[in-house]
């Protein structure tokens, strides 16, 4: 399966920069998936979870508050205001990421009625790491 280049950027820096087999994004009209050779598009993203399928078939999740994505045949560039990668090498690192993600959710809670879904996906992603 072909790979694509993925960058997730915030005003504070890079959250993810690497290759992926697929990316699932929380679009304004609903979730959508992107594979290599995808048609070009630019669209808004709402609060949700970006799932990144890596070459080893593992999935990394990144919680975002909102942003925009540009897709072309070889790369995906995601620009977001706030994001937290749900990852860590230890239980304490995962717990810190989970706490940071919950703080991000609190900051957007009033703006998004689908926040319960985001919270459930966040908890699921954290459990997969433990």
Please sum up the structure shown.
The protein is α+β, with helices and mostly antiparallel strands.
**Distinct helical segment count:** 2
Strand count: 10
Spatial strand order of the main sheet: 2-1-9-8-5
The CATH fourth-level homologous superfamily: F0F1 ATP synthase delta/epsilon subunit, N-terminal
Mean pLDDT score: 84
Portion of residues within helices: 25-40%
**Terminus-to-terminus distance:** 28 Å
Radius of gyration: 14 Å
Number of domains: 1
Beta-strand percentage? Answer: over 45%
Shape: globular
- Give the ordered list of helices and strands: EEEEEEEEEEHH
Structural class: alpha+beta
Protein name: ATP synthase epsilon chain
InterPro entries: ATP_synth_F1_dsu/esu (IPR001469), ATP_synth_F1_dsu/esu_N (IPR020546), ATPsynth_dsu/esu_N (IPR036771)
Subcellular location: Cell inner membrane
Membrane topology: Peripheral membrane protein
Describe this structure in words.
Belongs to the ATPase epsilon chain family. It holds the Pfam family ATP-synt_DE_N. One of its GO terms (molecular function) is ATP binding. The structure is a single chain. The protein has a single domain (1-130), classed as F0F1 ATP synthase delta/epsilon subunit, N-terminal (ATP Synthase, domain 1, Sandwich). The strands form two sheets. It has a five-stranded mixed beta sheet with strand order 2-1-9-8-5, with no helix packed on it. Strands 4-3-6-7-10 form a five-stranded antiparallel beta sheet. Strand 8 and strand 9 form a beta hairpin. With 130 residues, it is of the alpha+beta class. 25% of the residues lie in helices and 45% in strands. It starts with a strand and ends with a helix. It is built from two helices and ten strands; from the N terminus they run E-E-E-E-E-E-E-E-E-E-H-H.
């Amino acid at each position: 399966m072909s790979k694509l280049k993925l960058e997730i950027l915030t005003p504070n820096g890079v959250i993810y920069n690497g290759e992926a087999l697929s990316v699932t994004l929380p679009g304004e009209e609903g979730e959508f998936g992107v594979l290599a050779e995808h048609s070009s598009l630019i669209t808004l993203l709402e609060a949700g979870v970006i799932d990144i399928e890596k070459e080893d078939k593992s999935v990394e999740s990144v919680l975002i508050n909102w942003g925009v994505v540009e897709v072309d045949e070889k790369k995906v560039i995601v620009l977001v205001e706030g994001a937290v990668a749900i990852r860590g090498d230890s239980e304490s690192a995962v717990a810190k990421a989970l706490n940071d993600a919950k703080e991000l959710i609190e900051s957007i809670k009033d703006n998004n009625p689908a926040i319960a879904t985001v919270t459930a996906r966040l908890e699921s992603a954290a459990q997969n790491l433990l």
